[in-house]
Automatic annotation (TrEMBL):
It comes from Nesterenkonia xinjiangensis. Belongs to the binding-protein-dependent transport system permease family. GO terms for biological process: transmembrane transport. This is NitT/TauT family transport system permease protein. It is found in: Cell membrane. PANTHER family: ALKANE SULFONATE ABC TRANSPORTER-RELATED, MEMBRANE SUBUNIT, TRANSPORT SYSTEM INTEGRAL MEMBRANE PROTEIN. Keywords: Cell membrane, Membrane, Transmembrane, Transmembrane helix, Transport. GO terms for cellular component: plasma membrane. Residues 1-44 are annotated as: Disordered. InterPro entries: MetI-like, MetI-like_sf. Pfam families: BPD_transp_1. Coiled coil: none annotated. The lineage of its organism: Bacteria, Bacillati, Actinomycetota, Actinomycetes, Micrococcales. It comes from the Bacteria.
Length: 320
């Protein structure tokens, strides 16, 4: 009876994903029983294995204080060192303003409305251009990644476009589109699209061949193979490509706004930065640099870091 019950549990365990190995082990060692004489409950053990595969599901979610305190402490150290350097008097105050001077300039820009005008203009352009880049790059990248001939033909060109500084496209964009928002969006496309496409190509290359064989055995068509098998498998690489694409698009936007000024370009952070350079006002220059840095950090912390953390947790690669 014990052997019969064990075989029944082994049969159920074999029909489950994570319990398969254990079910086979039970079937091969049917004489292993609990000290009390009853066979091990394969279903309970399988549930335990499932819990081990997804450690984040049972762990209590809580904020690690070090993840907040350490960056704040590092920022405080940088500000103190900056102020101490200014107090030594090695440089003139107008060339190297202190943190309090920069804070005063930022407050003045806030009161005049220039702060929010610059941030909203640049952030709106950046998000719009990046969203359009995703819409273009995702289908193009999936097609190139799945067709070997296209991958071999366009792969080196896309890699070359990724390493090409997007600021090199600004003069051509000004000639083609003039001093309009189209110039900015074109430069953003040339910075973001190659990164997203390369992320998809790299992700498809890392998918094990067994995934494709299983899809073909199950009768999956090209659309089902892409949406049900490839996309879930390449999601980490895709998110990595999106993160890199956003970084390139933000840098490209600043380069375009600094060089292409006037016309209908509006007043963005790059314009503020160039205005500070033209007036030789280092407080304005440093304020613009810090705002650009702050926006980049906020987008990283609020958008990409949570997505990456969730992906790693669902794959059992991150405990908390």
């Amino acid at each position: 009876m014990v052997v019969t019950r064990t075989e029944e549990h082994a049969h159920h365990g074999a029909s489950r994903g994570t319990g398969q190995g254990l079910g086979q082990a039970e079937a091969g060692t049917g004489s292993q029983t609990r000290p009390g004489g009853s066979a091990p409950d394969v279903a309970d053990v399988s549930r335990g294995l499932d819990a081990l595969e997804t450690p984040g599901s049972s762990a209590r979610r809580r904020l690690d204080p070090q993840s907040v305190l350490l960056p704040v402490a590092a920022l405080a150290v940088v500000i103190v060192a900056w102020q101490l350097y200014v107090m030594t008097g090695h440089r003139r105050g107008d060339l190297v303003p202190g943190p309090f001077d920069v804070a005063a300039t930022a407050w003045e820009l806030w009161l005049t409305g220039a702060f929010w005008e610059a941030v909203s203009t640049s952030l709106g352009r950046g998000l719009t251009g990046f969203a359009l880049s995703i819409l273009i790059a995702t289908p193009v990248g999936l097609i190139i990644a799945q067709v070997r001939l296209l991958r071999q033909a366009f792969g080196p060109l896309i890699s070359g476009l990724q390493v090409l500084p997007s600021v090199a496209w600004v003069p051509a964009a000004i000639i083609w589109f003039g001093l309009t928002d189209a110039t900015v969006y074109f430069v953003i496309f040339m910075g973001a699209i190659p990164s997203v496409v390369n992320g998809l190509i790299a992700g498809v290359r890392q998918v094990p061949p067994q995934h494709h064989r299983v899809g073909r055995v199950l009768g999956a068509g090209r659309w089902q193979m892409t949406t049900r098998i490839l996309l879930p498998a390449i999601l980490p690489s895709y998110v990595g490509g999106l993160r890199q694409g956003w970084a390139f698009s933000w840098r490209s936007l600043m380069a375009a706004e600094i060089i292409a000024t006037g016309g209908s370009m509006g007043y963005g952070l790059g314009t503020l930065l160039d205005q500070g350079r033209a007036l030789a006002d280092m407080s304005v220059v440093l304020t613009a640099v810090l705002i650009i840095l702050l926006v980049g950090v906020i987008v990283e912390l609020l958008v990409f870091a949570p997505i990456e953390r969730r992906l790693l947790k669902t794959r059992g690669l991150l405990e908390r």
